[in-house]
Each structure stands twice: as structure tokens, then as C-alpha cells.
Write a structure and sequence with these properties.
It is a single chain. By secondary structure, the chain is of the alpha+beta class. The chain folds into 2 domains: 92 residues, no CATH class; 132 residues, Aminopeptidase (3-Layer(aba) Sandwich), CATH 3.40.630. Helices cover 31% and strands 29% of the residues. It is built from 8 helices and 12 strands. The strands form 2 sheets. A 9-stranded mixed beta sheet has the order 4-12-5-11-10-9-8-7-6, sandwiched between helices. It has a 3-stranded antiparallel beta sheet with strand order 1-2-3, with helices on one face. A hairpin with a 4-residue loop joins strand 1 and strand 2. Helix 4 packs antiparallel against helix 7. The protein is globular, with a radius of gyration of 20 Å. The termini are far apart.
Length: 275
């Protein structure tokens, strides 16, 4: 089992969990795939029985059966079993990681003018857009305006699902970064999930009117700097395989691919009609 899988589970905790010993079944009212998916932590000794039990568990909750399966030869048998059952493949996602040099943290902090946010510290300074000063604000909770931009850009549900998503975010100690445009509006946001000493960057979202202007880069750099100044050995993030622009940005910051995962979802069954 890859340690990053453990960290991913901690960074995006589900409201309800059932540990079978091999698999972890997760449910959060259908809000986000990750928080409503099966994590096959270790191979099951009886896949047929394990799948049947998982199907029953999710049907009680009126949720689709979704697996989040990381790369690895030990998952081949499970993939074959799901292929035979007609499970789809969705949302291929890459894990990218950047090693951090703790000895360089003071030098980098001086270059970027970033301070490690403490528990009561609200903001740090950063510079983007050819040296134009901007302010990257940090907080230990997600503000209403932080949540509003993130959900408008990345949300997969209506306004009624936002409080559920906010509960997922609050399930892990985190730092929330926000940068504003010249008029004071929120231009980009991001989250550093403080998991197991090796944090993960989540929820980087840029307002559609401010893309390709450096705001998302500013947030990401600030989150990396915050991890580095905490003495973390590395920082990781997740990006969809289809998002080539984001991958290019992260590679430019020194992130390299370190595995990935795919979602496998059961096809909905057609109900018999009276015809």
C-alpha cells in the first residue's frame, strides 16, 4: 500500500466509513467521487464476495458503487473482475510530488516574501504578474468567499451540496490560501491539507475571468512555501490526466509524476417496464 494513498484518504475524509479489513467503503451523501468511493487498501481474498457486500452497502445509501483504484500490479485482478461486471473507467488522475529542501526555506522565503502562517496568522505577502504586488491570504478555516469561488469553479453539485463539501474540507487540519485581484475580488484559492507530515495541495481554483494571469501560480507557490517552511520533506497534489495546462504549471514548479488512480463505476441497471 502506497503511503500517499493513506494521505489522500486523510486529506479528503468521508463522513461515513466502513472498514472491511481489506477495503474501506466511504460515503458522504453523494458529494464528490472520492468521498463516496471504495478504497481497495489491500487485495481482497474473495473479490466476488467483497464486491457483493460493497454493492449492498451502497444500495442501502442509494449511492452508486464507485472504486478509486491506484496504479499497481496488485490491482490487476480487481480491474479484471470489474471489467467482467461492466464497470466504467472515469476521471484518470495523476499524483504529482515535489521534494522540498528544508535548508533552502529561508532563502526561498526571502525571495518570495512569504512567511509561514501560524495558527492565528491571517495573511502572507506574495508577488505575481511581473512584480505587481498582491496579497496571498492564509487562514486555518475556509471562509465563505473562499468556498464560493472553489465551488463555482470545481463544484459538482448545487448550493445544497456546498455545506457537505465544506464538512469534508474541515475533516483535516488545513491551510487555506486566497489571492485577490486589484479590485479586491477573489481571483484564486487553494488548500494545503496537513496530513502526516507530508501535506497535499488541493482545491486550487482560479476565477474564469482571471485565468492565465498568474493567480493560480501565486496560490500554488505560496502553499509550497508554507509546506517547505514547516520542514516537510515533500508536498504532493492531484491533477486530472486531461488537464495538460495544470500539469505543465506544476512541472514548472518542480513537481514530477508519482503514480495515479482511476475511478471504476458500476453501470446503472435498467429497470424492467410493463411493456
Amino acid at each position: 500500500m502506497d503511503q500517499i494513498e493513506v494521505l489522500m484518504d486523510q486529506a479528503w475524509p468521508a463522513a461515513e466509513r466502513h472498514d472491511t479489513g481489506s477495503w474501506v467503503l466511504r460515503a458522504t451523501g453523494g458529494v464528490t467521487q472520492r468521498a463516496n468511493s471504495i478504497w481497495p487498501r489491500t487485495p481482497s481474498a474473495n473479490i466476488d464476495l467483497a464486491v457483493a457486500q460493497a454493492q449492498a452497502w451502497y444500495r442501502l445509501r442509494r449511492l452508486p458503487v464507485i472504486f478509486q483504484i491506484s496504479d499497481g500490479a496488485d490491482q490487476r485482478e480487481l480491474h479484471d473482475a470489474l471489467d467482467n461486471r461492466g464497470f466504467t473507467r472515469q476521471s484518470r488522475t495523476l499524483i504529482m510530488e515535489k521534494l522540498l529542501d528544508s535548508t533552502a526555506s529561508e532563502k526561498d522565503a526571502a525571495r518570495t516574501n512569504i512567511q509561514v502562517p501560524g495558527i492565528n496568522e491571517a495573511a502572507v505577502n506574495h508577488s505575481i504578474l511581473a512584480g505587481r504586488p498582491s496579497r496571498v491570504e492564509f487562514d486555518t478555516t475556509a471562509s465563505a468567499e473562499w468556498l464560493d469561488l472553489w465551488w463555482r469553479v470545481d463544484g459538482r453539485g448545487g448550493a445544497e451540496a456546498l455545506p457537505v463539501a465544506a464538512g469534508i474540507l474541515a475533516g483535516c487540519e488545513s491551510l487555506y490560501a486566497l489571492v485577490r485581484d486589484a479590485a479586491g475580488g477573489v481571483a484564486a484559492v487553494g488548500r494545503l491539507a496537513l496530513t502526516g507530515g507530508t501535506p497535499g495541495i488541493y482545491a486550487v481554483a482560479t476565477h474564469p475571468g482571471h485565468r492565465r494571469q498568474g493567480y493560480g501560480l501565486a496560490v500554488t507557490e505560496a502553499l509550497v512555501a508554507a509546506a517547505q517552511q514547516r520542514g516537510c520533506p515533500s508536498v504532493w497534489l492531484l491533477v486530472t490526466a486531461a488537464n495538460h495546462g495544470a500539469q505543465e504549471l506544476y512541472r514548472g514548479l518542480g513537481f514530477v509524476e508519482n503514480g495515479g488512480y482511476v475511478y471504476r463505476q458500476e453501470r446503472p441497471r435498467r429497470h424492467l417496464t410493463g411493456c
